[in-house]
Write the structure tokens for this entry.
Amino acid sequence: MSPTERKKKEKRAEGIMSPRERRAADFLKKLGLVVKKRPEGAEKSPDFDVTASDGFYFLSETKAVVGGENEPLLWQELYNAITSDIREAAKQFDSVNSTRLVPNVLILVSEDFRFREQSFIDFLKGEIIIEGKLLADLRRYRLGRVKPAFSRIDLFLLLDKGNTPSLFFVDNDPRFLVKLRAIFHV
């Protein structure tokens, strides 16, 4: 392990948040939620334990969506990365919540102004359509190896570059859906 990797691991073990984790935690706290950083262990786990004022509890993982604002946005690379992030997040949730006793919330923190709500909708639909014309077929990203991971995540929350939230609920467990909608005022 390099000295840089060792320092990062030590910071995570101490509970120090990365910039993407800080953005996600700040957003959740504004909703009146209590956000507790999970310690880094030998096995990867979600970033946060989150509790509402009524005691309702869920797990949250954050992933950064990076595009490179001064470079062309390459949809294939972007959606490959998102697919990998979703699959990794599902594994992290399963490491501590394999029996699905609490909901799993994946927060995608966009670091590129071009990746926003419509970009994720395109990913979920499996296509980019502009003015009625198919620009890109994304079905292989949405329906490929990532498909099983969708059953492990109850809410996708996208924070765009300006921290505007977009919520995408997955109807995996109605008990979780009702409670999550209330917490996020939807």
Observations:
- The mean pLDDT is 83.
- The radius of gyration is 17 Å.
- The chain has one domain: 3-183.
- The first helix runs from residue 3 to 14.
